[in-house]
């Protein structure tokens, strides 16, 4: 993975980073990935460094962002995710805070990036929950998007009548990525953006 260096031409030409509200602010009004990430993520610069290091000069066609705060006995832990499409690839980034007693801050950020050619996606499935508001107007109440590849993710043997007999059949689960938004988790703006992202992938994935 190529990371943009601090003194590279790309870094020097990048606008000065600006915080667009507190971390966790609604990202859906922002059309640019940079602005949306800085409004939503706790570690926006880490995310953008990883993603733009892969994208290079390719234009972002669409994206969706996710952030989950887990409360544990050790405190709050933030899990963050971005899915970005440049028209020919799907770039997936996620991070998770891990406890590390050797780090001065007590935690480290596990940052991961994965790149999938759109040709590797075999299935795009989207389910939308449609309802009505108090005035009787149509409203999208939630959306679930599933992207499945042809790569096997899990291989589970099917139980037979004789536990001592050799395995004769197995169930293969393909690699899949799931995204969801609801009125309680993201609100109408992020629901609309995820629907638009799913439709974009549905158009771009090779038939």
> SS-based structural class?
alpha+beta
What is the tally of beta strands? 7
Return residue spans where pLDDT drops below 50 for at least 5 consecutive residues.
Answer: 1-19
Rg (CA only): 20 Å
Order of helices and strands: HHHEEEEEEEH
Distance between the termini: 29 Å
What's the total helix number? 4
Order of the strands making up the biggest sheet? 1-2-3-4
What summary fits the major beta sheet? 4 strands, antiparallel
- Our estimate of the beta-strand percent is 35-45%
**Dominant shape:** globular
**Helical content band:** 10-25%
Mean pLDDT figure = 82
**What is the assembly state of the chains in this entry?**
single chain
In words, what does this structure look like?
- The protein has 4 helices and 7 strands, in the order αααβββββββα.
- The strands form 2 sheets. It has a 4-stranded antiparallel β-sheet with strand order 1-2-3-4.
- The chain starts with 8 loop residues before the first helix and ends with a helix.
- It is an alpha+beta fold.
- α2 runs antiparallel to α3 (44-55).
- The longest helix is centred in the C-terminal third of the chain and has 18 residues, at 187-204.
Draw up the topology in text.
Layout (H helix, E strand, L loop, with lengths): L8 H5 L19 H8 L3 H12 L6 E11 L2 E11 L3 E11 L7 E11 L3 E12 L5 E20 L12 E13 L4 H18 L3
Antiparallel strand pairs: 1-2, 2-3, 3-4, 5-6, 6-7
Helix pairs in contact: 2-3
């Amino acid at each position: 993975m190529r990371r943009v260096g601090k003194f590279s031409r790309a870094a020097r030409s990048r606008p000065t980073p600006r915080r667009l509200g507190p971390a966790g602010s609604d990202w859906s009004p922002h059309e640019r990935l940079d602005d949306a990430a800085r409004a939503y993520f706790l570690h926006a610069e880490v995310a953008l460094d990883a993603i733009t290091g892969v994208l290079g000069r390719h234009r972002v066609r669409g994206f969706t962002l996710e952030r989950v705060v887990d409360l544990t006995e050790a405190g709050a832990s933030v899990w963050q995710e971005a899915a970005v499409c440049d028209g020919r690839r799907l770039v997936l980034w996620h991070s998770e805070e891990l406890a590390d007693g050797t780090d001065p801050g007590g935690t480290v950020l596990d940052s991961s990036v994965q790149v999938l050619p759109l040709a590797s996606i075999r299935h795009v499935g989207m389910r939308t929950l449609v309802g009505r508001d108090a005035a009787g107007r149509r409203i999208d109440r939630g959306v679930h998007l599933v992207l499945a590849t042809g790569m096997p993710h899990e291989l589970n043997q099917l139980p037979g009548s004789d536990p001592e007999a050799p395995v004769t059949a197995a169930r293969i689960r393909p690699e899949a990525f799931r995204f969801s938004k609801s009125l309680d988790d993201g609100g109408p703006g992020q629901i609309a953006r995820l629907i638009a992202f799913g439709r974009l992938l549905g158009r771009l994935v090779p038939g």
